[in-house]
Amino acid sequence: MPHIAFLSRLRRWLGGSDAHLETIAAALAEGRLRQPAHPMSDQELSQAIREFQALPPTDESLEKLARRLAENERKAH
Predict the structure, then answer these.
(1) Each residue's pLDDT tens digit in the chain (77 positions)?
(2) Which one of 25, 28, 62, 76 is separated from 11 by 20 to 30 angstroms, measured CA to CA?
């Protein structure tokens, strides 16, 4: 799924644009964050997003989100 479609999916949990979504969008565009290679369930993705939203949108919280998304890839293999 192109990252634009992935961002659209994230907007459902973020309720539109906010600093967290802008951080994710920039990181995807810059290659600092990759969307999961294998689809995540709505439950898995919403949990990862809730954890990200609980923190300020910083490089550290973005790295934590990246690890969560990467965990999904490891589970799929």
Answers:
(1) 578 888 888 887 777 778 888 999 999 999 999 888 788 888 888 888 889 989 999 999 999 999 988 886 666 55
(2) 76
In total, how many domains does the chain have? 1
Can you give the pTM of this predicted structure?
A: 0.79
Number of neighbours of residue 62 by Cβ within 10 angstroms: 19
Sequence-distant (6+) residues with CB within 8 A of 7 are 21, 24, 25, 28
Listed residue (2, 8, 4, 72) closest to 38, CA to CA: 72
